[in-house]
UniProtKB/TrEMBL annotation, chains A, B:
Compositional bias of kind Basic and acidic residues: 1-12, 586-606
Pfam families attached to this UniProt entry: AA_permease_2
Keyword Membrane among UniProt keywords: yes
Residue ranges of the TM segments: 139-156, 162-189, 227-246, 252-269, 281-302, 322-342, 363-388, 408-429, 456-478, 484-506, 518-537, 543-561
Official protein name in the record: APC family permease
Keyword check for Transport: no
Native source species: Plantactinospora sonchi
Amino acid sequence: MAGRQRADRNRDGTTPPEGPSNVFSPSAEFPPLNDAELAALREIGRAWGAALRDHPPDETELPLDPNLDQHDHPPTPSRFGRLARVEMFRTGRREELTATGAENVSGGRLGRATGRLRRLLLGPPLASAAVLQERMRKLVALPVLSSDLLSSVAYGPEAMLAVLVLAGSGALGLSLPIAAALVVLMIAVGTSYRQTVYAYPHGAGSYLVASDSLGPRFGLTAAAGLILDYVLTVSVSVAAGISAITSALPGLAPYTVPLGLLVIAGLLAGNLRGVRSAGKLFAAPTYLFIVAILLLFAVGLARAAGRGFEPVPPPPVGAVEGLGLLVVLRAFASGAASMTGIEAVADAVPAFRPVEWRQARTTLTWMVGILVVLFAGLTVLIDFNGLVPRADETLLSQLARQTFPSGPWYALVQAATTLVLLLAANTAFNDFPRLLFFMARDDYAPRRFLHMGDRLAFSNGIVALAVTAALIFVAFGGYTQSLIPLYAVGVFLAFTLSQSGMVMHWRRHRVRHWRRRAAVNAVGAALCAIVLVTAAVTKFVDGAWVVVVAVPLLVLLCLHIRSHYDAMRQALTLATAPDGTPPPEPDQHDEPAGEPDRAGEPDRAGEPAGGGDLDVGLTPAQVRHLVVVPVARLNLAALRALAYATSLGQPAFAVHLSPEPEEADRFRRQWEIWGSHLRLETIISPYRAVIAPLAQYVGALHAARPDVTLTVVVPEIVVRHLWHQLLHTRTELRLRRALRDLPGVVVTSVPVHVPE
Amino acid sequence: MAGRQRADRNRDGTTPPEGPSNVFSPSAEFPPLNDAELAALREIGRAWGAALRDHPPDETELPLDPNLDQHDHPPTPSRFGRLARVEMFRTGRREELTATGAENVSGGRLGRATGRLRRLLLGPPLASAAVLQERMRKLVALPVLSSDLLSSVAYGPEAMLAVLVLAGSGALGLSLPIAAALVVLMIAVGTSYRQTVYAYPHGAGSYLVASDSLGPRFGLTAAAGLILDYVLTVSVSVAAGISAITSALPGLAPYTVPLGLLVIAGLLAGNLRGVRSAGKLFAAPTYLFIVAILLLFAVGLARAAGRGFEPVPPPPVGAVEGLGLLVVLRAFASGAASMTGIEAVADAVPAFRPVEWRQARTTLTWMVGILVVLFAGLTVLIDFNGLVPRADETLLSQLARQTFPSGPWYALVQAATTLVLLLAANTAFNDFPRLLFFMARDDYAPRRFLHMGDRLAFSNGIVALAVTAALIFVAFGGYTQSLIPLYAVGVFLAFTLSQSGMVMHWRRHRVRHWRRRAAVNAVGAALCAIVLVTAAVTKFVDGAWVVVVAVPLLVLLCLHIRSHYDAMRQALTLATAPDGTPPPEPDQHDEPAGEPDRAGEPDRAGEPAGGGDLDVGLTPAQVRHLVVVPVARLNLAALRALAYATSLGQPAFAVHLSPEPEEADRFRRQWEIWGSHLRLETIISPYRAVIAPLAQYVGALHAARPDVTLTVVVPEIVVRHLWHQLLHTRTELRLRRALRDLPGVVVTSVPVHVPE
C-alpha cells in the first residue's frame, strides 16, 4: 500500500512505527523503542544481570502478590474514604489486570460529584477497543464534515457584496462574474483535494501533505494557518449564526455575546461526547439547511417566472470609493470565504468507515457539488432581487423575507441557517484536535494532545479550541464582518501549501497518470496562491496583518517545542550513538581522597563499588545510598520518617535545623533520651531561614560526593480539608521544590494523616 | 516572679515552657516536649534499641561525613547552577554547623535578583542572637508607640464636632464639657493600663490579660477587636494623613487612593526592616508634631490675649436634627476615637530595654500626659476660634491657617500632622504582628505568624496587615469619616475586656493594695464599657454593625484553627495518655491467611516480623517494605527509577499501564529484552486513564496488606524553564496527589534533569 509507506516517511525517519501512523491510536502516547534503543537496553540488562548475580530479586520475596490473585475479599475503603471504589479484575493472562473504573479518584466528595455530572453529560466511558466502531458512514459524514463548507454560503456572498457596494449600487452587477470565477476555483480546489484523499488514504490534511512533500517548516506553516482557520471557523460561524437569529428576532441583538458563549459551551459538551454521537446530533440540521435553501430557490424562481424573469433594480447607494481592480480583488477574496471548510474531508479520512479513502472521496464530490449549487444559486437570486447588504439584517434573511413574506417558511430558512452555522463550528471541533494529534505525534505540539479522553475524543484539543474561540468571539464582540478578513488568509495559506505539496508528491512518486494529476494540483495551487496573496494584500489593514504576524510566531513556537522534546529524548534515550552502542560503563572518578567512611561500607550487590557517572546510575550496583532525615521536632511524624529511613537498611543520619544554639542543645538532649539511634547533625540557622539552609546543606553533601544518591526522607502532614493547608508551613513541599534542581537527590515523603 | 507564673498558665497548662513565655523568641516555633512525651520517647527509644540490637546503624557506614569536615575543597555549583553559593562553616562543636547564607535558593536568576533587591530594601539579615539588641530606649519608644495615640487628636476632635454640628452651630459649645469627660476617661484608662504594664511585665495586651483572667473566649474577643482596630488604625491614619495633605494642597485630592497605597507600601517596607530601624526612621516626626501643636497653642493663646480673650462666634449652621441625648452620646463616642492607641505600650513591653515594665510605665505616663494636653488644648482653641468642620479642609488645617495666616508655619503644622499620622499607622505594624505571635503560640492563629523573618521582624504578620489595610482603604475610597464608626467599637471592646480582666486578676492574686488596684481598673472597665455600648448602639447603622458581625466570626475562626491544631497535636503526639504511657506495642492482627509470600521473607532486624497497627510504624522493625515502580516506557528515566528501587535492597516490582493489550505485549517483549530483572505487572486501562487506575491499583495493594509500607518510586522530569512543564504530563505530581490520602503509601521521586 503506497499510502502506508508514504505515511511512515512523515515521522522523520527515526522510528518506523509498527502500525499505520496516520490513524488515531491510544498507543501513540507510548512510542515503541527503536533498534538502537533495544540494543542498548539489552546491554544494560546484561549489566544488571552481573550486578544482581549473587542476590537476584526473588519473586517469592514480595510480601504480597502484585496480581492480587489470592485476595478474594474486596479491598476496603481507606481511612480517608476517598479511594472507595477499588475494583480490578484479572483477565485470562497471568500478569495482566484490567482496570474497570476510569473515574478520577482524587478530590473527595466534590470530585465524585464532578465525576457523576461528567458521566451524565458525556455518557459512559468508551474502551479503546471501540475505536473502530466510532467510524462514520457517508450519510453521517456528509453533514458532520460539510456543515462548515456549506454554511459558508450564509456569509460568503454577503462578504463579497459588502465590498462591491462600496463602489455604489452600480458595481453590484459585478457579483455574477466574480461568483463565476469563484465557482471555477471551487471546482478546481475540490478536484485537487479528491487527489489528496486518494494519495493519503490514512488521512491527510494540509499539514501532513506539506510536511511530507515540502518539508516540516512548510508543514508547520500550513498547520499554523489551519490552527487560525479552525479557531476562526468557530468564532465566525457562531457569530454568523447568532446574527441569523438577531435578523429574525432583532430584540435579541443586545445578547449577542452571551448567546455565542452559550453556543460554544454547547459545542464543547457535544464534542467531548465523541465523534459518532456528535454526528448523530448534527446530521438533521445540515440536510434541513440544504432542503431549505433549495426550497428558497424553487419559490424564488417561481416568483421570478411569475413576473417574467424581470430583475429588480437595486436601491441606489452612493459610491464610497471608485470602482477599480482593488475593489474587485477584495470582493473576490471576501467571497472566497465561501470555500472555507473544503479541506475537512481530507483531514478526516480515518474517521470514515472502510474503505476510507473511497468513502471520503465520494463525500467530497457531493459536498463540492452542493456548494456550487448553493453558492451560485444564492448569488444569482440575490442579484435578481436587487438586494443590498445591510448592517441589521443578513442578505440571506432579506432574501428569505422577500421570497416568503409571511408564514413559517421564513422562520424555517432562518432556523436552518442558524443551526447549520452552529454545526459548522462543529467541523472545527472535529478537525482541530486531529491536527494537534498529528503535530503532537511529530513533537511539534504538547504531547498531551495525543491523549484520548475516556469518550475516545481528544478532549484536550477540544477544550483548547473552545477556550480560544470563545476569547476571540468576545474580543470581537461577536461581529461577523470584522472577523472575515482574518479568516481567508489562514485558510488559503494552508490550501496553497497543501496543493503545492501534492505537486511535489506526484513528481516524486510518479504513479500512473502522475503528470495529469500534478497538473490538476498545480492549477489548484496557483489559484489558491492568487487568492492568498490577494487576501493578504488587499485586507492587510483590515485585520489580515494579525494572521501575517501570528503564523510565523506559531511556527517558531512549534519549532521550540520540538527542540525541547528533542533535548528531552536525547537526555532520556538509552542509546547514545545511532549505531546502538550502549552508554559507556561507569568508572571510578574524582572521588575525594582519604575518605575513611568508604572503606567500611559493605558492597551490597557483590560488585566492585561503582562510583559512577552522574548521568548513569542505570544499574543497581551504581547506586550508593545515603539517607538524610530532617527532623524539626521529635513527634510521631518525625519518628515515622526515622523508622522508615532506618528500615531501608541503608546508611542514614538525621539533621536538625535550629534558630538558636539553646534550642539545638535542648533538641540534642531529647535525642539522647530517645537513645541516639542515628547520628544527628545540627545546623544553626541564625537568620531563622528553614528551607534555604537545609537545601544548601544537602547541596553541599551532594557536592562533596556527587556519586552518592542522597535520599531526603521528610514527613508530610496530610490534612482532610484543603484550606487547612494554610495552617501548616508545608516544609515537605518547599524542600522538594528547593531540591528538585539537584541531580542525584531523591525526596521521599512519608505521609502522616491528621484526621480533622 | 508573679508574671512568669501567670504567663505560663496562658498556655493551657499542657506544656510548661522552659523560658519566659511572653517574650519573642525564634524558638517559639519549636515548642519543647513535655514530660509525658519525653517518657514516651524514652520508651520508643528502647523499642528501637531492641529492634536494632543485631544491626545497630554504624556511623562509619556513612559514605561521607555529615559534618562536611574532611572536605576542604569548596563544594562546586551543581549542573543546574541554582545552588551555587554553598558556604557553611563549622562552629567549635562537633555536631553543629552554622548556616551563613539566609538567601532563598530557589527560583534561579529571577530568585537571585529578588534576593538582591530584598537585601537592598531591607538591609542585611540579622542573627537571632541580635534579638536583645533590638530593644528600644524610652526616647525611641515614645515616638514609635505614641504616634497612634497622639495623632488621634488630628481627627478625634473633628469627629466629635462633626456630630455636634448636626444639631446646629449652637450645639458646638457642648464640645467643652464632652471634652472634659473624655479627658477624665483618658486619665482613668491610662491609670488602668499603668497597672497592666506592672502586672504583666513580659508584655500584656488586652488579649493576654483577658485570656489569662477571663478565659480564652474573652481573650479571643479582645483579640478580634484589636485585630480590627489595628487594621483600621492603618486605614484611618493613612486616610487622615492624606486628607491633611489635600487640605494644604487641594490639587492632590483626586489622587487620594493611589497616594494612600503608596504610603502603605512604604510602611510595609520600613517595618520589614525590623523594629529598631523603624524606630530611628520614625522618631523625629512625632517630636516635630508635638512641638508644632504646642507652638500652635502658644501663638493661638498670644493672639487670643491680643484680642482680650474674646471668643469668636461660629458661623451660623442650620440644625439637621434636634439636640438630644443621642447626639451628645454620639459626639462623645466619636471623640473617644482620640484615645485609640493608648494600649500600644502595654502590648509592647518586651520591646523595651530592661527593666522593661518600668521603662514602659514611664513612657505610658508621658504619652497620656501629652495626649491630654494636646486634646484639651486643641478643643479649647477650636471652640475659641469658632471653627466648624468642613468637608474639604480638616479642622486642624483651618486652625493652623487662622493662627499662621501665611509663611512656613502653616506648612510646618500640616507636614508634621501628615507625618505623625502616617507613623501612627506604623504603631499598628508594631503591634499587630505581636498580637498574632501570641495568638499563634496559643494555636489560635496560623503558626506561620510565629516565624521571625531574617530581619527579626514578624514578616508574615506585617504583610498580612498591609494587605488587609490597603484593601479596606481602597474599599472606603480613603475617606476618614466613614471609617471612624467602625473604629471605636473594636478598640473599646478590647479596652473593656482588658480592664475587666485586670479586676479579676487582682481579685485572684490579692497582692498588696489589691483592692485599690482593682477599684482603679473597675472604674476604667466601667468607663470603657459605657463608651463601647454607646458607640455600638449610636453608630450601629453608620458602620459599627460591621464590627458587631466581624468580631464573633473572627472568634469562631480562631477557635476552629485551635481545634485543628489540637487534632493535629493529638495525631502527632507520642504520648497517647496524659500519664505518659507510651503507645501500645503493635501486635499481629487481621492478616490475610494463607500468604505464601510472607514465610519466605527474611527478618531484616532480627525482630519478630511486626505486622503492626497502621498508626504505629514507629520503629524500624515495624516497617515492612514493598517497592512499586510504575514504568511507562523503558527509557533512561525509567531505568534510573528501577535501579534506585532495586538498589534499596527491599522487595520490589514494576507496573506498566497500557491503553491496549497490543501495547502491553510490545512492552513485555521489551521487558524481556532487558532481562526481566524485576517482576512486571501489567494493567490494561481500556479507558486510557493513567492516574486513576494506578492509584486504584496501589490502593488495592494497600488494602490487601495494610501492614506493608508501599513505596512508589516515580521518575520526575525536571525541566529548566517553568513553562516547559506545560509540555509534560507531570505524572509524578498527579500520582503523588492521588496517593497522598492513602496512609502507609510513600511516594519517592527520582529526579531526571533535561538540560534544555
